[in-house]
Structure formats: structure tokens, C-alpha cells
Amino acid sequence: MYAVIDISSTSISMLVCGKDGARPAYKYREGLSALSYTEGGKLTEHGVEKICEKIAVFQDQCKKFGVERLYVVSTAAMRFVDNAEEVFAEIKAKTGAVVNQLDGETEAYCDLIANEKFRSMTGPVIIDIGGASIELCDLTKGGKDGIKCLNFGALTLQRKFVKSVYPDKDECAKIKKYIKKALANEELPSYAGGTAVLVGATTRSIYEIYRDYYDIDVTENMTIELEKLKKLAKKLIEAPDRSHLLIKNAPEKIYFIVVALITLVQLLKKLGFAGIAVSDCGVKEGYLKLALSGEEKSEVSPFFPERPVKEITSVEELAEHIKLRQKAGKPSKKKDEKSEEGAVDKSKKSEESEKPAE
């Protein structure tokens, strides 16, 4: 079996696949907002510890499943952190995991490889809304030619414009204005009449909310109607009872999912898509295919992390090390006293039993 752990800006997730690398056997996700643990553009020590804790849990799962090869990747979460290299070094020291950092283009290419099956649709274009970036990938183009990366995401917009959990009408207006300006500056091609293929955990959560709200049966062909999506967005912005729907379907994304939905609606309207499909495959599936084929040069991570051994560099450190070892091997004083007391009691009892009866 093979596995991929993805450190994203909103979660840490793992995919475990069978021998062929194509059939997902297990999927796991742990909510963790890496950007919430940044100060001055750097990830804090507490943030690194949180990431290491999650990775360690997944490493244990790999051991249970008998995973033969594990890859650890990081997407937009670390692309916008100033101390990424130091973070990767600490992750390796604490867990043994070697992190493969993906740039925006490679991340989008992984989405493309994972969703080749949508090529037969009319003008298919992948949309992956992450916490700190958005990837667009035109499936009608070959290789990486149709890839576009936007350097903002649902979480960055949330932190930039929203003061509370949910955006109010004024904040929504500011978000829409920002997105329109950003898209105009990118000079994106027209996708009019094409099919938007929604990829990634965030858009999948939006679909789950959409499906629940409109009471849609679970089917293999997951699709969305834009007008219905607009009505849903309006409800989630204005309705006081929105929390129940969000907590039920996207509890770990409740603080930015409304912003993600606003972003998605703006993208769909601006780019002129006629149809909307939802995929259950993304970066991890695509990365695994590329890594196993050799197209993506990847470092394999150990999933049985070795206990770090401190190097002794001085006589003083050696003396301290010996002292600690001796202390660890020496029984405690209380234990010795109890043992001696027990021996005395046994001796007394033995003497009393040997006395002749009067």
C-alpha cells in the first residue's frame, strides 16, 4: 500500500491507496489552520508542534495498514510562510517526515492528473479553492499549459475582510470587489460554455452543504446548478439559522466556508461556465500517480520515526549523560527502604515462628 500526507492551509489529510496507487482504500482528514499559527509571517513553535502531532497520528495509521511507501507534501500552507525551511527541518527532526514542497503549478498539475476522466466533458476546467490559493487548470490543454494560480484563497480572504465568524453584507461586498479586481488583473481566458470541475476538500464541503440544503440523493455524478448555488450563498450570508447547516456538513470549515462559497460563485459567474461537476479526487491522488510513475521527483518519508539521539560533544555532557543513566538504573530510596522493612518483618516473623510454644 502507498500513502500521501498533505499539509494544507486548512487541514492535514492522508490518502492510503492499494498497490496500483489508483484505488483509494482510506481517507483521513484532521482540521488544522496553519495560517492561524503565524506571527509576523512565520509559523510559530506551537503551530509546528500541532503539525507534528497530526503527522505522528497518520504515521501510526500507516504502520497499522502496512504501508510500504509514504510521501508527505505541503501545498499553499508553507508557500506563504517565511520560515518554511526551518519548519520542514523541525518536522523531520521530530517525526522523521521529509516534506516535499509543491509550488502552485505543480499543485494544479496534480489536480489535472487526478481528474483526467473529466476530459470528455465540454470545455472542462478544474477549480480548486484552497485556504491560501486557488488553482485553475484547463483540461483541454496539454500538460501544464492551461494552469493558472491565484495567490489568495478562502482563508486569506476571511482573515483580510471578516471580523466575526461569518461575513456581514458590507464585508461580502468588499470580498466580491477584491475577487473581481484580482481576476481582472490575472487576464484569465474566457471559459464561456465550459464545465467547471470542482476539486478539493473545500469545494467538496460546499457540495455537501448544497446537497443537504436541496435534499439531493447521493449519486456518482455530482453536479451543481449555479442559480441554486447563488440562492444558497444568499441564505448563508443572511439567514440567522445558517449555523445548523454548516455545523452539520462542514464543522471544521465553519469559519471560512461562507467566504469560500462567495469566492466560488464569483469565479463561476466571471468565467462564464455552463455546467458544474464535483470531483472526489485531488492533489493527493494526482501526486501519488506522478510519484509512482517517476514523473515527479519525490522523497519518500519514513513512517517509523527513529528516536532522535543527542550527539555528545564534550566531557561535561558525557559526565551528565552517565549521571542520568546511573540515576535511571538506580532503584529509588523509598523503594529500597520498603524492601529493607519487608526483609526485617520477614526476619521477625521467622524468629517468632521458631520460638517454642509455652
From TrEMBL:
<dbReference type="InterPro" id="IPR043129">
    <property type="entry name" value="ATPase_NBD"/>
</dbReference>
<dbReference type="GO" id="GO:0006357">
    <property type="term" value="P:regulation of transcription by RNA polymerase II"/>
</dbReference>
<feature type="compositionally biased region" description="Basic residues">
    <location>
        <begin position="324"/>
        <end position="333"/>
    </location>
</feature>
<feature type="domain" description="Ppx/GppA phosphatase N-terminal">
    <location>
        <begin position="37"/>
        <end position="288"/>
    </location>
</feature>
<feature type="compositionally biased region" description="Basic and acidic residues">
    <location>
        <begin position="334"/>
        <end position="358"/>
    </location>
</feature>
<protein>
    <recommendedName>
        <fullName>Ppx/GppA phosphatase N-terminal domain-containing protein</fullName>
    </recommendedName>
</protein>
<dbReference type="Pfam" id="PF02541">
    <property type="entry name" value="Ppx-GppA"/>
</dbReference>
<dbReference type="InterPro" id="IPR003695">
    <property type="entry name" value="Ppx_GppA_N"/>
</dbReference>
<feature type="region of interest" description="Disordered">
    <location>
        <begin position="323"/>
        <end position="358"/>
    </location>
</feature>
<dbReference type="InterPro" id="IPR050273">
    <property type="entry name" value="GppA/Ppx_hydrolase"/>
</dbReference>
<comment type="similarity">
    <text>Belongs to the GppA/Ppx family.</text>
</comment>
